[in-house]
Amino acid sequence: MRGDGETELAESTVDAETPLADATVGGEWWATGVVYQVYVRSFADSDGDGVGDLAGVRSRLGYLELLGVDALWLSPVYPSPGVDHGYDVSDPRDIDPLFGSLDDFDGLLADARRHGIRVIIDLVPNHTSDQHEWFRAAVSAAPGSPERSRYHFQSEPNNWQSVFGGPAWSRVAPEDEYYLHLFAPGQPDLNWAHPEVREDLEKTLRFWCDRGVDGVRIDVAHGLAKPEGLPDDRRQPGWTVVEDGTPDPRFDQDGVHEVHRLIRGVLDRYPGRMAVGEVIVRDDARWSAYVRPDELHLAFHFGLLNCPFAADEIRDTIDRTIAAAGSAPAVWTIANHDVPHPVTRYGSLERARAMALIALALPGTAYLYNGEELGLPDVDLPDSALQDPTWRLSGGTDRGRDGCRVPIPWEGEGPGYGFTTGTPWLPMPESYGALTAAEQLEDPDSTLSLYRRALELRKEHPAFRGAQIEWFGAPENCLAFRRVGTTLVCALNTGDRPVPLPPGDVLLTSADLTENGELPADTAAWLA
Ligand code: GLC
Ligand code: MG
């Protein structure tokens, strides 16, 4: 592809030294598979209370098999007061009645297996709920007590800010000590220097591995160690942190790696299981340390997720992500429960569809977020409907993440669109009526059909085997790469006019080609 209309495929412009994982050599499922994130509250409600649950997930496994995913990742379903919708856990070894029971969980695991789908759970080790028995004991115990030493209690707070807004310290009562919470006040941070905190995580890992889960996603994997003495944040204080290169003392402390080695040590005793970490660390060299051979199997890099729809930046991000992963498989994702849906973030359905073909063509593993495959846009919810703690804690300046958490429209009419027979926990807009899974299954041009076809090709076509990529010359605002050692070429046009396609047979495009066979703006193509 070149601006002057010629095709030019000989020019490889990047060193192809991006070996993928010994892991792929062993053929581990998690090194190449596609994982589908189920935000359980919003996926399918079986009992009409308006909140998705485990029986709901079970009832939709046929859909996930039809879609073609290899595994699903369940957002937290443990007992929780729900201040951060399950990311505030009061017992990490049980199921909240809102979502079902341990029996429902075991049933889901068994059913999923029958559908050929693996199950990953979401562990939240950085903090507990303030209703966890440990924190309740800490509150009723005295300053300096062993009960308080599992958390971070101090008579004077430092200047740290919470990720959700406002100070990272609260008091359990006036006159009492302050405790640290990097997220909501209902999410006190655990003290990772405390041996019981580590032992409890091992116990939790064994509990779920013994039940048969195939892996764990580690929430806030970059937070599981705090600096000695909790020194002040020397970056510009305030909620909007200016990045001037001064390290953030709240995250990415060296001590965190000891915890990841501990997690790996437990998982290594369960063949085939894996850990994927949420690692929000800007410096790529520091990020890489999390996926050393004795730490996490995989980590989210988030480069692609945060990248604007612009070919040059996408290309740089892909290079950076692959380089950072080193010998671990790269993890590609363009959506999750913390960011606006791709359609909204990129500004159009066309762009979201094009980016899906990029993420799914790259070597490594891909993570989808429920609703992404339906091309759902974010919902602009009224203030009164907002539930994300970010909204309140930011003092109403950040509307939070509810817009991407509106339930999945399955079929039929509102208000529940097959998600619930009751009232959905977040209101579903009328526009979702045209985007139901049932409608899209029937329509060969739908976004769901695009994802199904893409996943099928990715699984079955031999061109998807190459573990490295090389770049081709491409017109301005375009990119094209090939999976080395195979024939797969993926091309993307982020410009505003059609460009010629590279040679090859077209396998799939995110939109129709132009009449003379060119790749239109906001479109991606797979060729072989
Ligand atoms: C992670 C989760 C996010 C949650 C936070 C606190 O970033 O993805 O949803 O609010 O951790 O647990
Ligand atoms: Mg329910």
Description:
The chain is of the alpha/beta class. The longest helix is centred in the middle third of the chain and has 17 residues, at 195-211. It has helices at 22-26, 54-59, 61-67, 102-114, 133-140, 195-211, 256-267, 284-288, 311-325, 342-346, 349-361, 389-393, 437-442, 447-460; strands at residues 34-38, 71-74, 118-123, 153-154, 169-171, 178-180, 215-218, 274-278, 298-300, 331-333, 365-369, 469-471, 478-483, 489-493, 506-509, 523-527. The strands form 3 sheets. The protein has an 8-stranded parallel sheet, covered by helices on one side. Helix 6 runs parallel beside helix 7 (256-267) and helix 11 packs parallel to helix 14 (447-460). The chain has 3 domains: 4-127 and 195-463, Glycosidases (TIM Barrel, Alpha-Beta Barrel); 133-180, Oligo-1,6-glucosidase, Domain 2 (Oligo-1,6-glucosidase, domain 2), CATH 3.90.400; 468-527, Golgi alpha-mannosidase II (Immunoglobulin-like, Sandwich). The protein is built from 14 helices and 16 strands. Helix 4 links the parallel strand 2 (71-74) and strand 3. The protein binds alpha-D-glucopyranose and magnesium ion.
